[in-house]
Design goal:
Elements (H helix, E strand, L loop, with lengths): L12 H11 L3 H12 L6 H13 L3 H14 L4 H11 L13 H9 L5 H23 L8 H26 L3 E4 L4 E4 L7 E5 L4 E8 L2 E5 L5 E5 L3 E3 L1
Antiparallel strand pairs: 1-4, 1-7, 2-3, 4-5, 5-6
């Protein structure tokens, strides 16, 4: 288990006090102070990483998974948070195994990661300007070969990279994942009758597909779908 991550540039007394409480193994009080800081919803991966560590020590699996996931969402390259998340998830009783994605879905998710949005946008702009420059030079008579195919190919790549950028940006802004926060949360097949078909262990990460009043339609790690009361989960 990785130790708490300290942010040396912080000057917040509350932050320093929470860190000191963590080092003194006073996890309950440290959690209270970290949550006070988190109530303002700062875009701070280290804060949520610290919260994950505190809740791991308190054996609160749902809260630990939620905060590690939030840290990774803010900073996708946060390897310590990923390691601690996997360690925490290994403690989930009756953990639901992931069905895994087929290769082309994995490929698509890989090239449209949230962190790649700026790269694809810049590459799209580069191809657009290059194609525009070729067309302009041809019309001005600066080049004497048929550049139509080259410029068309450039524009096609521009559109393709723009699609990648849009998808990456959407992944960065979407909030359709959540963590089950209650022990053995009931899931029903039909939102209307509410008859439970399964019980989901605390700490399970799910995808939200639909929402009706107080219920959410979720996709479980193994691909099964069902309806759960929204009080049972917390959005990442």
């Amino acid at each position: 288990m990785t130790n708490v991550a300290f942010a040396g540039n912080r000057k917040s007394n509350l932050w320093q006090e929470a860190n000191n409480l963590f080092k003194q193994n006073n996890y309950d009080q440290a959690a209270i102070l970290y949550e006070q800081i988190a109530s303002s919803k700062p875009n701070d991966a280290s804060l949520y990483f610290n919260l994950g560590n505190v809740y791991y020590k308190l054996n609160k699996i749902g809260e630990a998974v939620l905060n590690y996931q939030r840290a990774i969402r803010i900073q996708p390259s946060f390897q310590e948070a990923k390691d601690n998340l996997e360690l925490t998830m290994s403690r989930i009783p009756n953990r639901i195994p992931s069905s895994g994605d087929i290769f082309f879905i994995l490929w698509w998710k890989g090239i449209t990661k949230a962190t790649f949005s700026g790269f694809w946008a810049a590459l799209s702009l580069l191809f657009f300007l290059s194609s525009l420059g070729i067309v302009t030079m041809q019309r001005l008579g600066k080049i004497n070969f048929n550049s139509s195919k080259i410029s068309l190919t450039g524009f096609l790549f521009c559109c393709l990279f723009l699609l990648f950028a849009f998808t990456s940006a959407h992944r960065k802004s979407e909030h359709n994942t959540a963590v089950v926060m209650k022990h053995d949360a009931p899931v029903s097949l039909d939102v209307s009758n509410g008859k439970s078909i399964s019980y989901i262990p605390e700490g399970t990460t799910v995808i939200i597909e639909d929402e009706q009043k107080d219920n959410l339609q979720i996709v479980l790690p193994d691909g099964r779908k069902g309806w759960i009361n929204k009080v049972q989960v917390e959005r990442i």
